[in-house]
Design a protein that fits this description.
mainly alpha, 13 helices, DNA-binding, homodimer
Chain lengths: 307, 307
DNA sequence: GCTCCTTGTTTATGCTGTAAACAAATCTAT
DNA sequence: ATAGATTTGTTTACAGCATAAACAAGGAGC
């Protein structure tokens, strides 16, 4: 269960050259991953087993282990494979290659269209999670990002670049929206799965829980909400949540805007600076601070990359 | 695996009288649940098996089936058991028993303190999820709510009652915040679990993925964010996200406030009404509409309750 | 004493991921 | 062409899981 846990092997597989199409008539990583995705799509991730994948390709289960280290790595490969679908939908990001500078240059949508762009990214991700209902549930904090995951993350980051957020805030915003989408997708997938498995819809199931309703009177607020029709036309959790989250991000951006307008402080030593009338607003109070920041950047930052 | 799936049996168990303390020296539901919680807390939910629980109590695994229908129901019972811890922390909600009326009366914190109250609820829930790292991961859309889950939900609803939101919006807000907390808790629990299992910290693990960094230059925005220090002092995902979500809720409330100030429309027929100077703002344009709304409420609403 | 019910045990089934040994085919060097 | 090495797929085996079914022991009521 925990023998061949070598992430570098996974990296190698994920970023391998797609010379996979050589198609010697036997097994191949690509064929295995495709078969696995088909099974998981059609019958759910819990129906995915090494034996099933092997048999679908006309081999035994053990045969897969000659091409893929284990099941967890197979799932990693499946993730990046399907993430590739979405990348194709977006026009190439064409990010301006400006390297450093404490500010990150604006991305698609420019300085004002961030909300539409970020929302579109969230919706694309959600659509992907609906096509592959197992996806959101298996992306862990240590699943190695493949090229497609990286491209998606890059695009999302570019979405909130150059609108006044700090770099850590940009990462946090993308993470928040991404995890929101995944959370809702997991929920939705679970509903669909048990509905299909049991043949009973969510509505019907909860409707049949009369024994619960008997206790309702003990909860005054819930009773009032119920009687006011709070469950007659429920809000769509995804739409409602996405609006709230984006509103929250908007509030953050506005807050940053205001702060920048009223007072400008050096990015290194924090001393207050007066606002120059025109041109690019300065980030450092003096040439010395600018140099210090540069040296700090060169010596290399620490911490992990996450999608 | 799918035989004794009778939710009503689960309801019965969850809402059973706590006469459980009779303590005939054999097994009992309470003892089983406690033992299961201890195992899951100490060794993770994946280490929880019927055999382990039985053996911890000095019996065989199969013995549990005389008291609990199956493992899934046992997990339901575990959830409500630990949710009971939090309820005790809060002063009794003392909800004003006003029954109907299209408005839901204000809860703890009153008409202005909703944010503090809701945030406190979220933090309590999170603390609970940290004490029992398996909790957030097992609460599904069809896990039957026990008395403690219901009490928690009631309290959270009361938190956003009477501040101008519609009933469906109240439900949506509580759901959004709850799922946010659960999502972050699941993430955090996963990090802790793999750190303990592998002995490698998240930082170290990502640091060792040099092979990934080699590709970094292909992603200009990510590179810029990295070089600007976006990963040096990352935002705390929970704190950052909670602020964003609450900001989003605040925006919604402000929006509702403005709409109500500028124009008032009948809750039944929607026709515009002028604003009376003083007193409680009227919800219906005429006695007739008020009566229609009342009949609508009496005939009973439809839909499911969810936490 | 007899019967019924509750409680716990034993045995068995079918599923999982994967380690280890083995066999066959194919590639490489001579 | 032939010997050796490498790759690829198979067989067998193991430990673990939830739980169905049959069985055994004790207590309660008649």
């Amino acid at each position: 269960m925990a023998a061949q846990e070598d992430p570098d092997r996974t990296v190698e597989l994920l970023w391998r050259e797609p010379r996979d199409a050589v198609s010697r008539q036997g097994l191949s990583v690509g064929a295995i991953v495709s078969a696995a995705v088909e099974i998981a799509d059609a019958e759910g991730i819990e129906a995915l087993s090494m034996r099933r994948v092997g048999e679908r390709l006309g081999f035994t289960g053990m045969s897969l282990y000659r091409h893929v280290p284990g099941k967890t790595q197979l799932v990693d490969l499946m993730c990046d494979a399907v993430l590739g679908e979405t990348v194709a939908e977006v026009e190439p990001s064409a990010g301006s290659g400006l390297p450093a500078g404490s500010d990150v240059p604006p991305g698609p949508g420019g300085r004002s269209g961030w909300r539409e762009a970020l929302e579109a990214w969230a919706r694309r991700y959600r659509a992907l999670c609906r096509r592959h209902p197992w996806l959101a549930g298996v992306r862990g904090t240590r699943s190695v990002p493949g090229p497609n995951a990286m491209a998606g993350f890059e695009h999302a980051l570019a979405t909130v670049a150059g609108i006044g957020l700090g770099p850590a805030e940009m990462v946090a915003v993308v993470g928040l929206v991404g995890r929101f989408v995944e959370g809702e997708a997991v929920r939705e997938a679970e509903v669909a799965r048990v509905e299909r498995r049991t043949g009973v819809s969510e509505q019907d199931w909860w409707g049949a829980r009369e024994s619960l309703f008997a206790e309702l009177s003990r909860y005054p607020t819930l009773t009032a909400v119920w009687e006011a029709g709070g469950y007659d036309e429920p809000e769509d959790p995804f739409e409602f949540g996405l609006r709230r989250v984006l509103d929250g991000v908007e509030a953050l951006i506005r807050q940053r805007d205001e702060r920048r307008d009223e007072s400008l402080s050096c990015a290194v030593c924090g001393t207050a600076m007066e606002r120059g009338g025109t041109g690019r607003p300065r980030a450092y109070c003096s040439r010395g601070c600018q140099q210090r920041a540069y040296r700090g950047r060169r010596s290399g930052p620490r911490g992990g990359i996450r999608q």
